[in-house]
Amino acid sequence: MHTPHIRTSRRTLLTLIGASLVAGAAPLIASQAATASPAGLDDPAKKEIAMKLVSSAENSSLDWKAQYKYIEDIGDGRGYTAGIIGFCSGTGDMLDLVELYGRRKPGNVLAKYLPALREVNGSDSHEGLDPGFPADWRRAAQDTAFQQAQNDERDRVYFNPAVQQGKADGIGTLGQFTYYDAIVMHGNGDDGTSFGSIRRRALSKAKPPAQGGDEVTYLNAFLDARVWAMKQEEAHSDTTRVDTEQRVFVRKRNLNLDTPLDWKVYGDSYHIG
């Protein structure tokens, strides 16, 4: 692209920046960008990357928005797993989601299943849900109100706590993603393989940057703890979402999750340009 000559003696600084933006070559802006804090995982572009990374592991697809309608029992003892983040009928987050949808849209197609969802919470039972629940879930997933409810519950329960804790620990975008992926799989409860327990295990081995530690050293300790937690449960024993995804980014010291990104999960290759 041809860059027009700009006479600084006849332009204000504001005009200089505007012209440089149009021209696509801005040393001043580049300098400002270099000194600005990198975006966290809650930056919209980074969040979109996070959604794709999780979807590659959860759904073998980068098209995370196609997963609103997803539902199946994967045999992990949590009943039905469904939606963009794997809400489960046995762990309470699916119940919270359907209750939120009911408050926003009373009488929706899933409302009649609320008593059954309350009954099966904490188990892998389908009692009161079969045979119609999967088909009705897919019908509900066509409703933008249900899609937004999934987005909001994902953020409230998983995404926002991960980002907030990551920022408190002084870790960057990649580190915040490692927290998010761990909360998605293990939950944020009190059991020995929950996110909180994984983080405590990591803290016993290394200090995060907020405590004066090295970020890469701490992330490796966190991923070590994550792998340990995954191996405690047969359904999660394949650790490629750590080994051939997150560790790849850590080894490259891509702490800001800058594109392009290349990784593998379960042997499948993925790319974000």
TrEMBL record:
Position of the signal peptide: 1-25
Main location: secreted
Source species, domain of life: Bacteria
GO molecular function, one term: chitosanase activity
Active site: E58, D76
Keywords noted in UniProt: Glycosidase, Hydrolase, Secreted, Signal
Cellular component, GO annotation: extracellular region
Pfam families: Glyco_hydro_46
Entry's EC annotation: 3.2.1.132
Family affiliation: Belongs to the glycosyl hydrolase 46 family.
Name of the molecule in the record: Chitosanase
